[in-house]
From TrEMBL:
Transmembrane segments: none annotated. This is Galectin. PROSITE patterns: GALECTIN. It comes from Acanthaster planci. The keyword Repeat applies. The gene is LOC110990588.
Amino acid sequence: MSDVVTNPDVPYSEQIPGGYFPSKTIYIRGSVPSHSDRFHVNLQSEVGTGVADVAFHFNPRFEGSQNYVVCNTKTGGSWQSEERHQDNFPFDQGKTFELVILCEGDEFKVAVNGRHYLDYKHRVNLQEIKAVAVAGDVEISSIRFHPPSAALLLGQSGIHIHDPPTPYVGPIGASGLQYGTMITVKLTVHPDPNRFAINLNGAYFGPQQDDIALHFNPRFPDRVIVRNSLSGGNWGGEERDGAFPFAPDGTHEVTILCMRKCMRVQVDGHHVIDYNHRHDVQGVKSMKVAGDVTIHEIDID
């Protein structure tokens, strides 16, 4: 398996290198022949055509003035209810395109030629996605996966991720958060920031993330770090005291250490806050980084 595939034959179907998870992005460049009537991209459970389980079926159809894209999911060999998108149809017969599919915790985000086109809510567990397939009247020049498989290393030593996209959503570990787990995020703040957040979440997959054990939220206009927890969809009381060590356009290292009574947070090696647990830490399965930052590294040990 390669992280970049050039000029593959169509139909094409191969495993997704490095596995599939939130923040994984697939870039597909190609061209639509002038005679094309339809093509599709599938994210599916196994390599091959006609497989029984397809998590995301993206299917542009060219029917004169009625061009549209069908999105759907197939489970156990049966298609579910389809979604049709006709407005702002982004493909043209006889022209090239770049299709980008970004996986987030609760949905796929699709862009075509640099413009956001649609969102598609997950209907199955993302862990079932093992392969990508392209078929129909289309020519493919390249398929690229980001982060590349070498960028995410998952083993006994923890999780190490380099240059993920923002927002990033990903697992903390097979057993969830443990006492002694250390999470380090190296990031650069945008030049004119409003805020960013690091969340330690109860849920990994699915549209509902009703439990957040730690919401760490630096807000630049007020120069305050807001901390809070979400339980059953309801926020608790905010904590806002303490220093504000972040700077616009600055590169910082945020370290979160899970201790028996609290989450201890350091920024650039200096203690910033202790946040007493409001949740069972073993229920924390994932983390999210979002907002006005560029992420360089995430290490979980």
